[in-house]
Amino acid sequence: MIETIKHIHVITVLISISGFILRGIWMIKDSPLLKRRWVKITPHINDAVLLVSGITLAIMIQQYPFVHGWLTAKIIALLIYIGLGFKTFRFGKSKQQRITTWMLAIFVFIYMVTVAINKQTLPFL
Ligand code: HEM
């Protein structure tokens, strides 16, 4: 059971970052695809599954944010990632700024994956 949920979690993680990178490329190219309804809605559905599977896993392995450091770091990074995503696709003032926040968001995402795999707040040290 836990392995199935972990698979769902990891698959939604992969879909999430692939979609984020693709939408960023469309943003850079000023593609009209970015304005499509399904392009705007699908990431929210996937991210909801990602979040619910993550919370389910946390309950199953009894490791909680604000109790265990690595999950606290992951949640804080998630909030930063969401904020950077808003800046990239909604509130970014110039394309240069949008590209910067897009790249920062990708780095934050890589941090979250590294934290999840190593279960350490500072996995690079
Ligand atoms: C964009 C956000 C997220 C990313 C990139 C991410 C990434 C990952 C990855 C790659 C794994 C697999 C680690 C492994 O194979 O050992 C994982 C596992 C896990 N994640 Fe997430 N996750 C995210 C959001 C969340 C959230 C919001 C929660 C909880 C509130 C959460 C809780 C967990 C838990 C408990 C595990 C299982 C750890 C284990 O049993 O080994 N994740 N996550």
Write up this protein.
The protein has 125 residues and is mainly α. The protein has one domain. 79% of the residues lie in helices and 0% in strands. Helix 3 (69-91) runs antiparallel to helix 4 (95-118). The radius of gyration is 15 Å and the shape is globular. The mean pLDDT is 96. The structure holds protoporphyrin IX containing FE. Protoporphyrin IX containing FE (HEM) is lined by residues 6, 9-10, 13, 16, 50-51, 54-55, 57-58, 61, 63, 65, 74, 78, 109, 112-113, 116-117.
Number of strands: 0
- Secondary-structure class: mainly alpha
> Into which percentage range does the β-strand content fall?
under 5%
Low-confidence stretches at least 5 residues in length (pLDDT < 50)?
A: none
Q: How many separate domains make up the residues?
A: 1
Instruction: Give the fraction of residues assigned to helices.
Output: over 70%
Small molecules in complex: protoporphyrin IX containing FE
Mean pLDDT: 96
Helix segment tally: 4
What letter string, H or E per element, gives the SSE order?
Answer: HHHH
The Rg value, from CA coordinates, equals 15 Å
Instruction: Give the distance, in angstroms, between the N- and C-terminal Cα atoms.
Output: 33 Å
**Strand count, sense and closure of the main sheet?**
none
Give the overall shape, derived from the CA principal axes: globular
List the helices and strands and how they pair.
Blueprint: H1 2-28, H2 37-61, H3 69-91, H4 95-118
This protein binds protoporphyrin IX containing FE.
